[in-house]
Design goal:
By secondary structure, the chain is mainly alpha-helical. It folds into 2 domains: 33-210, Growth Hormone, Chain: A (Up-down Bundle); 229-428, MFS general substrate transporter like domains (Growth Hormone, Chain: A, Up-down Bundle), CATH 1.20.1250.20. It has 14 helices and no strands. It has helices spanning 37-66, 70-98, 100-115, 124-152, 158-186, 189-210, 234-246, 248-264, 270-290, 297-320, 326-357, 364-393, 395-409, 412-428.
Length: 429
């Protein structure tokens, strides 16, 4: 989930996997040291400020200014998300062929342009066109961004760098949402439209920052290797699907849990604000620490297995809160949220390690596109699946979700060994 900014602790010694000359620094007046991570961080911050601003105001803009119903907004965004998923893999392949930096810049410029189309929307049809164009650009850009990170950072730094960029993402979303509060307070057509243009401006800044990232050296496809290698990689597909299930924990926390608190427990709804604060603070403080051992395939697989266990335990604690009074429900929900956030951090860190370490160097973008499609599918299904289970079935729905997370995490180490064996067999052939 997008996390609010927090003040991470500054580690004294260089962390494992990051040489002293490239150590990632935190926010205590700090940028990463000179190198690719610095412009990547600047580009990430600018784009996520824009995205946080846009998506905070968008539902109210579309309903109060454009005049759409909430159902039309939900249907349009879901349709756009499905369209975006369809372009992730081809966009990743283009990043491998044309170069990820150039594609990332081009897509970001296109995104800034099509985003302005929201101010021209006058009905449901126009909204579908605008939302679809934005979703296509977002999906293509994420695949290119994954390839750019993978090609710009040395292998030993990819996961740790990605963890740092996730912290930057959290800060950007928080700043964007805080800026959106001005537009929401004004609640007028000119201010909403000005906010859309401001978000587009953030994407332009992100494109300029991305141009400062050194272009990764191109890697030619080895003779005899299939052009669409990611689509033929069975173990990687299995790991992608398992991660898609594990990633559903984010939507469970952001969408289903507040509904569950309101409908099934005696806890005051304001408790959810405290649980979000707990989640965002822990993520800011501990994401890089949770990523320490996930730079290798075995370490990343172990992290995802542990994430499945922790998420199952969290769901069990949520289940115990069903029908409880305020005091007991608050205690159980808080304990569940604390366990959940650690599982969330391990799931994310493990996903980065697996998605990068198992991707051939000539097809990083294509593999990132496949992994991103799986993650998007999980996020798309989560609001319906998790909300229906938790609010409709109460403790039984929570237990069902916990079992789903446990079943998804347990096979990850075996699937990762299968993927490694396949890669070694290909290297010998």
């Amino acid at each position: 989930m997008p996390h609010s900014p927090g003040r991470p602790q500054v580690p004294a010694p260089p962390e494992p996997g990051l040489p002293a000359g490239t150590r990632v620094r935190y926010w205590a007046g700090a940028l990463p040291e000179a190198g690719p991570l610095r412009p990547l961080a600047a580009a990430t911050l600018a784009s996520r400020v824009g995205r946080g601003l846009l998506y905070t105001i968008l539902p109210l803009y579309l309903t109060r200014v454009v005049g759409l119903s909430a159902g039309q907004v939900g249907l349009g965004l879901t349709s756009a998300a499905l369209l975006g998923m369809a372009v992730g893999i081809p966009a990743g392949h283009l990043a491998d062929v044309l170069g990820p930096r150039g594609l990332r810049v081009a897509v970001r410029l296109a995104e800034a342009t099509v985003l302005c189309g929201y101010v021209l929307v006058g009905g449901f049809g126009g909204f579908l066109v605008a939302a679809g164009a934005v979703a296509v650009c977002e999906s293509a850009g994420e695949a290119a961004e994954g390839a750019l990170i993978g090609g710009s950072l040395p292998p030993a730094q990819r996961v740790r760098g990605r963890a740092y960029l996730r912290a930057v993402t959290n800060v950007g979303w928080g700043l964007g949402a805080a800026t959106a509060a001005v537009a929401l307070a004004a609640d007028s057509r000119p201010v909403y439209r000005g906010a859309v243009f401001a978000a587009a401006g953030c994407y332009l800044v992100s494109a300029l920052a991305t141009r400062r990232v050194p272009p990764p050296a191109p890697v030619r496809r080895p003779p005899g290797r299939p052009q669409w290698a990611a689509l033929r990689d069975g173990p990687y597909a299995v790991l992608t699907l398992l991660n898609a299930v594990l990633s559903m924990n984010v939507g469970m926390f952001t969408v289903a849990l507040p509904l569950y608190i309101a409908d099934r427990t005696g806890a005051p709804l304001v408790l959810y604000a405290g649980l979000v604060l707990l989640n965002t603070t822990a993520a800011a403080l501990w994401q890089q620490r949770a990523s320490r051992s996930t730079g290798s395939v075995p370490g990343a697989a172990t992290a995802q297995w542990r994430a499945g266990v922790l998420l199952a335990v969290a769901c069990g604690l949520f289940a115990l809160a069903d029908g409880r009074g305020a005091e007991a429900a608050c205690l159980l929900l808080s304990a569940g949220a604390a366990v959940h956030v650690y599982g969330e951090l391990l799931q994310a860190a493990g996903s980065w390690g697996l998605s990068y370490e198992l991707a051939p160097v000539h097809a990083v973008g294509q593999y990132q596109g496949v992994y991103g499609v799986g993650r998007s599918l999980g996020q798309l299904l989560t609001p319906v699946v998790a909300s229906s289970a938790m609010t409709g079935w109460g403790w039984g729905g929570c237990v069902l979700l916990g079992g789903l997370f446990l079943a998804a995490g347990a096979p990850v180490p075996a699937a990762a060994r299968w993927a490694l064996a396949r890669r070694e067999a290909q290297a010998r052939s």
